[in-house]
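Hi support team,

I'm opening this ticket because the web form for multi-chain structure prediction keeps timing out on my end. I have pasted the exact lines I submitted so you can reproduce it. The total is 837 residues across two entries, so I didn't expect it to be a heavy job. Is there a limit I'm missing, or should I split the entries? Thanks in advance, R.K.
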Amino acid sequence: MSEALEQRDLRDTALDEVLLESRLARTWHTPPGWVGFFTTVDHKRIAVRYIVTAFAFLLLGGVLALLMRLQLSRPEAGLIGPDLYNQIFTVHGSTMMFLFAVPVMEAVGVLLVPLMLGTRNIAFPRLNAFSYWIYLAGGLVLWVAFVLDVGPDVGWFAYVPLSGPQYSAGKRADIWAQMITFTEIAALAIAVEIVVTVLKQRAPGMSLDRIPLFVWAMFVTSFVVILAMPAVVVASTALILDRLVGTHFFNPAEGGDALLWQHLFWFFGHPEVYIIFLPAVGMISSILPTFVRRPIFGYLPLVLALIGTGILAFGLWVHHMFTTGLPRVGESFFTASSMAIAVPSGVQIFCWLATIWLGRPVWRVPFLYILAFFFTFVLGGLTGVMVASVPLDTQVHDTYFVVAHFHYVLVGGAVFPLLAAVTYWFSKMTGRMMSERLGRWSVALLFIGFNFTFFPMHILGLQGMPRRIYTYQADLPWGGMNLFVSLCSLALAAGFLLFVWNALRSARAGEAAGDNPWGAATLEWATSSPPPPYNFTRIPVVRSANPLWDDGGALPVASGLSVNRRELLITTTAEARPEARETSPRDSAWPFWAAIATTIMLVCSIFTPWAVVWGSIPVAVTLVGWFWPRGTPEDDS
Amino acid sequence: MKPRIVADLSHLPLHGAGSASLTWWGTLAFMLIEGTGFALGVGVYLYLASLAPEWPLGAAAPDPLWGTLITAALVISVVPNMLVSRWAAAHDLRKVRIGLIVMTVLGIVPLVLRVYEFGALNVSWDSNAYGSIVWVLLGLHTTHLITDVADTVVLLAVMFTRHGDNKRRYGDVQDNALYWNFVTLTWLPVYACLYGLARL
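Hello R.K., no limit was hit. The queue was backed up. Here is the completed structure from your submission:
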């Protein structure tokens, strides 16, 4: 028997349940300790690591926000000087966008997409490990520089000529530009993994109309990442070249153009908003049915709304440039498209309302976050329609009105759904439930704290208070409102702290969750909490969009996969018919070394262009080490 | 939940070719990323040209000799490239080895020519914005050439080891051939920009 167990092509059909699980665990497990830490390719472990790191950056960015509120709480406060203030708002914005919002959404995708699709690991799991290390390195570059007082000070969109060689001596702007390179590499890697996982690794029977809506959202988001992020890479590379080797992309005196920066940046920057927002709406569409106890209303319009938003996202970028003096006709076009994108958003809102209307709401914490989302996001959407009109935008451009608008959209539209998601899927990360009581307090503090902090900023903006000022004079009529905002921001901060405390405490001592504690319908709930390293003992077979609700007590599964090598199932792109068995790579330290080599190359290239030449050699060596075949069972064909 | 076995996967092949392979789709996705990069580069070229009072800016158009030779070399290389791909599909190890040697040489040829092409641009990257975008477009494509040649060399080495005669490796060779076609294809609009538009 033991000899038979070691056969290279042993199938699951030859084993009973207990033996099968122990063999699969042996094949798929990550070694304990440091070795496992640096070599794991398990999508769940990497995703949790990604999410924890992103929340650490959220807290750091939040501390910077509180520092700004402290400085602005009264006129002419002398706490923070203009130079440090410039660094603080730049690092705050850059951290929240590039180190928190985008990575955390992609990380939730890395965690859930393979589980929801019923597969055993994400496609290209080593690339996934590489992505995390590169992301971490990018975050460290920004924050180490900030601590050393060389943090970027040019705003999170780093407009030229301010960020160009003439007005930003030193390396501060380069740190920003290179941090972009790190985070975009990390995000693009995940986008590729998710696209391929969704196309080829769905459980048999999961045709296009049975894909969970969160997976649809991540799929569309990944295409938006693929088509948008190269623009900011081109922009930041051109900026580094202007600053390092004397190119003239943004120098009008030599045929360059400052607005070229804005076009390239916002061609990425506006889709970026949807890169953050689409996963969030996917979360809502996937969470909501569980808490109203019925399938989602309007699956098809919701999918079309996701795709429509993804396409329209590329037609809006000029609305960030309304005050730059572009031709009127162009501005009118972008006003129209900016208003048009309210249509798919509206479709989604009405589908959700119909779902709630027709269901029986269960007032648990994730549902409360979704209600907080509705209120906050709709307000942000309304001010979005307002600033889409050129005359109004001209009036409030670069004021606190805009600050209020995008915080309503991003915190209301993305952070509330994210907190709902973390609460909802917490058991799939830790095996435990978050405290309901602390959760309710968090929702209340965050909702009230957020609205009282940011709503007055609309009024401050209309009263003419510009953004990015480090102080204001006592005779300006903004003092009282600013003090109110600063005080309320403490409630908002308390809400976040309570959420983090709840998560930390529940991860250690929370109530144990069963496989499916919420009674939900999708496949991630068909396996244990947390799932075993191989996710599913046998690959599930899907017959409806809500498999766990429609299949009664028994889960239909497929058998016949190998157990002594990491093997998963490839299915056809449209109908998800079984097509091939495919192996999934083993653990490896090479992605880590490749990330180290890439980091050295990118950091050194801030200082000399030759770093690209010499630095590419270790990168090439580590990549060869990564891909060189080793005769493992996974290499059999 | 209690499992109920309803399907048998044991008859499925281990590793599928073409669109049944993950790396094939991954290669397509990376081509989409890089293709977007090239499209944006050409977009920047056109944007700067639309603003300039004259184009090329303060320089003669690049001498077309070397760039045209590279175009010819790349277009010709597509034929042996397709043959290598076909041999890989047929799992013909001997021909694949020969084909990869040929493709390595055909990859190095445009790189050598590229050195002369940079010299014939008639403008430096730091002369003006025109020079900057010309050098960046050419540099971007050169990076792709170097990457794919390095990839081909490593693949060639693997094909001479005991790991070579394996369906996965033949798939890698096919994906590598696909990528070389992409490197050739992206060159054509860049060539048209650098040499055609600069002469309009």
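A quick check on our side: Helices of chain B lie at 22-51, 64-89, 93-119, 129-159, 167-196. Let us know if the file doesn't open in your viewer.
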